[in-house]
Amino acid sequence: MSAVTLFGTLDALGTFVFGLSGAMVAIRKRLDLFGVLVLATATGVAGGMTRDLLLGDTPPAVFRSALPLGMACAAGLFTFFFGALLDRMQRPVMFLDAVGLGVFAIAGCQKALMLGLTPPGAILLGVITAVGGGMLRDMMVSEVPRVLREEVYALAALSGAAAYVGCLALGLSTTLAAVIGGALAVILRLASVRFGWHLPRAPWF
Amino acid sequence: MSAVTLFGTLDALGTFVFGLSGAMVAIRKRLDLFGVLVLATATGVAGGMTRDLLLGDTPPAVFRSALPLGMACAAGLFTFFFGALLDRMQRPVMFLDAVGLGVFAIAGCQKALMLGLTPPGAILLGVITAVGGGMLRDMMVSEVPRVLREEVYALAALSGAAAYVGCLALGLSTTLAAVIGGALAVILRLASVRFGWHLPRAPWF
Amino acid sequence: MSAVTLFGTLDALGTFVFGLSGAMVAIRKRLDLFGVLVLATATGVAGGMTRDLLLGDTPPAVFRSALPLGMACAAGLFTFFFGALLDRMQRPVMFLDAVGLGVFAIAGCQKALMLGLTPPGAILLGVITAVGGGMLRDMMVSEVPRVLREEVYALAALSGAAAYVGCLALGLSTTLAAVIGGALAVILRLASVRFGWHLPRAPWF
Lengths: 205, 205, 205
Known about the structure:
Order of helices and strands of chain A: HHHHHHHH
Oligomer: homotrimer
Shape of chain A: globular
């Protein structure tokens, strides 16, 4: 798969799963149909929009193609009508959020590399792309964002983006590098929740 | 009226009414004079600043002309001294917010069209311009933004922007299209509050 | 010192002290090591990133140089291990925040002037650069930002930036103008807290 096609696929997938997570949060807050669509869209497109703004690629992709908005609205509508299916999973928002985190970390990192950023800058941009959507979602409903509350979150995105850049440096194909990096981020994130991993707190407080 | 003049008029008007709404919220939160001016300015200029950032038109207009800042500060000072007049209205923040919503939906949509966005992209940008100021205002005072809480809010902005684009496509003048689109957004918003319209909630939750 | 060198020094210093303030807030909220680094980084780089976005200087400096990220992470690590030293000061977050406010007001104003903004636009950009980091920090932990809560905050940044522009207009060197402007902002801010200065509230509410 070419880097551009792969990027587009990741971007659409990340928008969809973050859209699902935003819609689930909206439904739990008892918002109506349009509120669900608004939070699904905001959560789904905010990461990519921030990424494009920071890269100076304006107007961001969401204004030039119907795909991101369509994915986010489809996620919102699906959750609105069939969210009961998602709700049977133990922690659907957490799971979807983890997948979005991994996918957007790679998508952000890859677009930054395509536009000429150095590897450290690209990894940072991947992290910001990955955490942006969930951060806006949580701040809009007045919750402290997961990126601060939960143990291994930005660290999972950072690890995935760094693994992606490392795999590319080792000569792996973009597809293989993306699968390894994305999977690493999702697995680290899910494992940290499952096993209650956390980093130490300040020793003196 | 030319499209450019009309855009400038709408932009200044939207900045002023959103400035009034920000100042009212600040006064109710017992902020002092400068806090009132800060929240009036943030609410008044945030929508247009976001719009210009997303369109890549940097630095945003507020840094190049004294008009937006002047309108927002005038709104803040007016409310600070004579806000008792506004306060006699039943729900002044809601009303001013509705007018700002309608005006900025058209202003954002129109600037996007002038800069070459396609109609769907321009409508989306109109909605973001319209909801941006009020969203920052509410998030700064730690309230869940109206765009999520209230029934017909982003939907009103979306309807107004879509009507504006539709009227232009039918060959109406920009002024007439702006009046129709803006009025539709304001009326939908006010009517939804007056009559308690709301969209359905998720059937399964 | 040349204007460019001076700007770089101010920018690094502001990132460091805002990083310290973000890390202190994170530790008090019982976040773990990575959460501390995230909030230190967000607080340290948000002001400069907003400034660069608004000036259209993309990608922002933090993606092109290791310095800002390094300063913010160093601030986070220092606070994590040795924050007890800071904690002995009476109000460390307030003090560091005041220094960051003064330094970023001048750095933002100076970069805006270098990129051709008019003096009023440059002063406004200085204020936004100065308040941006602390605002994101406070909003991420669901607190009403200092810029609204506290009396002389944006006003201190505004005074410092205006003094800086005034000194340059009087023919002073950039270094001297920066010292005067920055010191004025910090002193005004600290004095307002020490002596409980505040501006009047709306007379009618």
